[in-house]
Amino acid sequence: MIKIVFFGTSNFAVPIMQKLLDLNFNIIAVVTQPDKPQGRTKQCAPSPIKLLAQKYHLPVVQPEKINLSDLKNYTADLGVLVAYGQLINPDIIKSFPNSIINIHPSLLPQYRGPSPIQSALLDGCRETGTSLMVLDNNLDTGPIINQKKIIIEPTDDFLSLSGKLAILSADLLAVSIDKYIDKKIIPISQNNAIATYSQIINKKNGEIKLTDHPKEIINKLKAFTPWPGIYFFWKNKRFKILTAHLNNNKLVIDTIQPEGKKSMTYGEFIKGYRDFNF
Predict the structure, then answer these.
(1) Which pLDDT belongs to residue 40?
(2) Per-residue model confidence as pLDDT tens digits over 127-163
(3) Are strands 26-31 and 3-8 parallel, antiparallel or unpaired?
(4) Could you please report the per-residue DSSP string of 46-105?
(5) CB 172 within 8 A of CB 146
(6) CB–CB of 115/136 below 8 Å?
(7) Backbone phi, psi, residue 239, to 5°
(8) 55-59, 97-101, 180-184, 269-273: least confident range
(9) Residues 122/219, Cβ–Cβ less than 8 Å
(10) How many Å apart are CA 19 and CA 25, to the nearest integer?
(11) Residue 230 pLDDT grade (very low, low, confident, very high; cuts 50, 70, 90)
(12) How many angstroms separate the CA atoms of 14 and 166, rounded?
């Protein structure tokens, strides 16, 4: 039976690891980020992947910066890496006889980098997908093992699309591992000439101007829900748009949250801000 070390941290990785466990793949150890302070209390909390590993009594490794010595107690045939959050050194990759399979939620070489799902939504793409690749020393440049497309529905936002891509990735990985190990799938090099890149998302990315194109605003809302959200400034105050839609290519705000106040419908909002207009 193939022995696997699973590298992952975020919620996106959970359905993928769960799928492997459900199908009785032999995960011998789980590598995840150290527990980090959460919320207002700043109490350290385990990652979603650590919680899943503990549920199945799997060994957990949590280095601040991973190196080969962290894996000395685990002799595995294959690594699987999903939203782990650290770079993997070449010596670690080489330590696995069948390398490390990295899951990236885009149709590589499109949207290499840290925010492929948000980027597809920002660009108003009609489809996206997931890629299984052999991890190499560069950013999402490894040979492709397998890919699968998915339609982006008009109602999708980051949360819903992430969930769909996680399930798609889990299913694709489950049917590809044995074929990859048995060399029934030959990885194909990416075409670097057509590669595009996604960027790190921060709070500032959520700022909009109400003069921006309505479609651009809606795309940002989809991409940045729930974080960092979208907001604008008016009369030196910050207003967060929580939900909105397009009507005849015009922006219609449904719910909004003025700075320091609770969220409210746009109808409630306009009663208190009668001079607001956009």
Answers:
(1) 74
(2) 999 999 999 999 999 999 999 999 999 999 999 999 9
(3) parallel
(4) --HHHHHHHHTT--EE--SS--GGGGTT---SEEEEES--S---HHHHHHSTT-EEEEES
(5) yes
(6) no
(7) -125, 125
(8) 269-273
(9) yes
(10) 9
(11) very high
(12) 8
Give the domain ranges of the chain. 3-194, 203-272
Q: Which residues lie across from 134 on neighbouring strands?
A: 101
CATH of 3-194, one of 3.30.830.10, 3.40.50.12780, 2.30.42.10, 3.40.50.170: 3.40.50.170
Collect all residues with Cβ–Cβ distance below 8 Å to 204 and sequence separation of at least 6: none
Question: How far, in Å, CA of 102 to CA of 134, rounded?
Answer: 6
User: Does the structure show a pLDDT above 90 at 277?
Assistant: no
Tokens representing 118 are: 């948000």
SS3 (DSSP) at 39: coil
The matching CATH number, chosen from 3.30.360.10, 1.10.3290.10, 3.10.25.10, 3.30.40.230, for 203-272 is 3.10.25.10
Question: Quick one: which of 122, 167, 173 has its CA closest to 147?
Answer: 173
Phi/psi-derived region of residue 124, left when phi > 0, alpha when psi is between -120 and 50, beta in every other case: left
Closest listed residue to residue 244, CA positions, set 272, 225, 268: 225
Helices then strands (H, E): number in the chain? 7, 13
Closest to 203 (Cα-Cα) out of 224, 222, 217, 223: 224
Task: Check pLDDT > 80 for residue 21.
Answer: yes
> Measured between alpha carbons, how far is 196 from 108 in angstroms, rounded to an integer?
9
Size (the chain), residues: 278
The amino acid present at 73, given as its one-letter code, is N
Two tokens, residue 135: 């991890």
